[in-house]
């Protein structure tokens, strides 16, 4: 199966480097994306919008001969959901890694501070203990060394969704900072954080207790979670 890995904010395709090998060994075709404006520190990020990122992923979907699985980390989950909206008949499943589907009309995060027209990785003090769980000092240094400024438009633009068929695309949430029990509680209570997830007809939850960047802190376990999600679709197929 074609697996399309979508990075979260401040990251390029190399952020998946410790996750891809187990997926490929399992026989999957892995497409690791570096989204527009994240090609290098010197890339021109002016004018890069959320739609540019969605379009880049859609283009990859369209190049695949069969249905795909989208794997979106953090803000990449919002992009994956928009792609499922654009191509609901081509997406077999969306795997949300410490993420969730973003509703229509909402930005991914318009609270992030803009510096010189772009959004640099904030100081660690701006993150919660839950975000940074298992990310030791060496891991933080490595992350910051490879982090790239995020295009402002991607964080601040509002999500645009058009096709209700997106709710027919199965979803798997890899629960890192918040356990599957917490997420089930949100779904039962109608919590705003799970409002869009509640509209999806088939949702699976997989626990992977760690911080917000499991591709760095628990890459083997993350790969296993993705494979578990994909196996459901292989058996269905």
TrEMBL record:
It comes from the Bacteria. It holds the Pfam family Abhydrolase_6. Keywords: Acyltransferase, Hydrolase, Transferase. One of its GO terms (molecular function) is acyltransferase activity. The keyword Cell inner membrane does not apply. InterPro entries: AB_hydrolase_1, AB_hydrolase_fold, Sec-Metab_Biosynth_Hydrolase. Coiled coil: none annotated. Residues 3-225 form the AB hydrolase-1 domain. The keyword Iron-sulfur does not apply. Signal peptide: none annotated. This is Hydrolase or acyltransferase of alpha/beta superfamily. It comes from Saccharomonospora azurea NA-128. The lineage of its organism: Bacteria, Bacillati, Actinomycetota, Actinomycetes, Pseudonocardiales.
């Amino acid at each position: 199966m074609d697996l399309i890995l979508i990075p979260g904010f401040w990251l390029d395709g190399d952020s998946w480097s410790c996750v891809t090998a187990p997926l490929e060994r399992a026989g999957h075709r892995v497409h690791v994306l570096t989204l527009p404006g994240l090609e290098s520190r010197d890339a021109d990020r002016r004018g890069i919008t959320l739609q540019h990122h969605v379009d880049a992923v859609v283009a990859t979907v369209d190049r695949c001969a069969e249905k795909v699985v989208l794997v979106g980390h953090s803000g990449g989950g919002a992009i994956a959901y928009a792609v499922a909206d654009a191509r609901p008949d081509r997406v077999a499943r969306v795997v949300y890694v410490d993420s969730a589907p973003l509703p229509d009309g909402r930005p991914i995060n318009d609270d992030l501070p803009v510096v010189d027209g772009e959004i640099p990785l904030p100081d660690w003090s701006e993150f919660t203990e839950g975000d940074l769980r298992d990310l030791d000092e060496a891991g933080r240094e490595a992350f910051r060394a490879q982090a790239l400024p995020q295009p402002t438009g991607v964080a601040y633009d509002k999500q645009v969704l058009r096709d209700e068929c997106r709710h027919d695309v199965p979803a798997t949430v890899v629960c890192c900072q918040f356990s599957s029990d917490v997420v089930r509680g949100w779904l039962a209570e109608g919590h705003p954080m799970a409002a869009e997830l509640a509209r999806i007809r088939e949702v699976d939850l997989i626990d992977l207790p760690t911080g917000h960047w499991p591709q760095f802190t628990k890459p083997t376990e993350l790969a296993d979670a993705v494979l578990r999600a994909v196996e459901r679709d292989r058996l269905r197929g």
